[in-house]
Specification:
Blueprint lengths: L3 H25 L5 E5 L6 H17 L3 E5 L6 H8 L7 E6 H11 L11 E16 L8 H8 L6 E4 L5 H13 L4 E4 L3 H9 L5 E5 H10 L3 E6 L23 E9 L4 H15 L2 H10 L2 E2 L4 H22 L5
Parallel strand pairs: 1-2, 1-3, 5-6, 5-7
Antiparallel strand pairs: 3-9, 4-7, 4-8, 4-9, 4-10
Helix pairs in contact: 2-8, 2-9, 4-11
Length: 325
């Protein structure tokens, strides 16, 4: 009597149960609170976007969606928390250009996750340009003023949301183009950095437009230059870097990513709900007001987007000489 058929049946049954369990989990999702980890302190663009998305997804999914700020190490600490979390669909990271494209190159072996393969990338949420702002009493109104300050004996301090951010790299590149290094002052998020500029503790900041937009409109900071291909329609009076003689353009991006191994059904559901939310006229208007462009990619599309960004930024970081120290 042969036992081969029995072994095949046993093997088939052991493979079927986990697959059936994953399908059931995807169909029942969500049955509890969902956590979005923001790898920066409250008050910056990543946090602002995450809270808008959390409110929208909570309404669409019928489950509580909470934001958990885990700042540090150029957005890599919070991202690692998610990469090491259970792939059950209840923990997400607000993945971004710092955590998944630039910081892995800046921090090197200290980053203990692969930005592509250790995540199930679900949805691109928004892209937006970089803007440089200054304290109104700093005397800096243009990029030429900033360069003159950098060349003075006291130098120029420029705040960012942290080492490893795209804004950090902008400070390095601007110093190279100006022929004078600028003093990078990293904070644990854009919120604290902006408050330091408003208080006059730091003269300037390189920031993502959404977190700076309200402060520019209120006049608490002066917009010195937009790092976009052309003037932004929401801020037509702010000249681009290129108009001022510096060939620099930089867009930040933000998305939603689960830990690798999250059931495809859950990833697809989150993608559909996120894209539906981002497509609503109210949200498109809100992002336009903040200076952002809503994303519209499938999970495969967002994964490939992250892969391209990693390939783009790693050699640029190396060439720039930017480090986390």
């Amino acid at each position: 009597m042969s036992w081969a058929p029995s072994r095949r049946v046993l093997l088939a049954s052991t493979m079927t149960v986990p697959m059936a369990g994953r399908r059931a989990a995807a169909q029942a999702w969500p049955s509890q609170s969902i956590r979005i980890v923001v790898p920066f302190a409250p008050g910056g663009t990543t946090d602002l976007v995450a809270r808008l998305v959390a409110a929208g997804l909570q309404e669409r999914l019928g489950a509580s969606v909470v934001v958990d700020n885990r700042a540090g190490a150029g957005a890599t600490l919070g991202s690692e928390v998610v990469a090491r979390s259970a792939p059950d669909g209840y923990t997400l990271v607000m993945s971004n250009i710092a955590s998944h494209a630039i910081s892995p190159a800046v921090y090197g072996t200290r980053v203990r996750y692969n930005p592509v393969t250790d995540f199930a990338h679900a949805a691109l949420v928004v892209t937006n340009p970089t803007v440089w702002v200054a304290n109104p009493n700093s005397g800096i109104k243009t990029l030429a003023d900033a360069v003159a300050k950098a060349r003075s004996p006291s130098g120029l301090d420029v705040a960012t949301s942290g080492a490893g951010s795209s804004n950090h790299l902008m400070v390095v590149r601007m110093g190279q183009l100006a022929g004078k290094e600028m003093n990078h002052i990293p904070f644990r998020g854009a919120g604290p950095a902006m408050q330091a500029v408003i208080a006059g503790q730091v003269a300037m900041m390189s920031d993502s437009l959404p977190s700076a937009a309200s402060h520019i409109r209120q006049g608490s900071v002066v917009a010195v230059g937009m790092a976009s291909a052309e003037r932004h329609p929401s801020f037509p009076d702010v000249p681009t870097f290129r108009e001022q003689g510096f060939d620099l353009a930089s867009d930040s991006w933000f998305g939603l990513s689960f830990p690798a191994g999250t059931p495809a059904g859950i990833v697809d559901r989150l993608n559909r709900e996120t894209r539906a939310f981002l497509g609503s006229p109210e949200i498109r208007s809100r992002f336009a007001e903040l200076g952002g462009t809503p994303g519209d990619l499938t999970p495969d599309g967002y994964t490939e987007f992250v892969r391209r960004e990693v390939a783009l930024w790693a050699p640029l970081v190396q060439a720039s000489g930017a480090t986390a120290d």
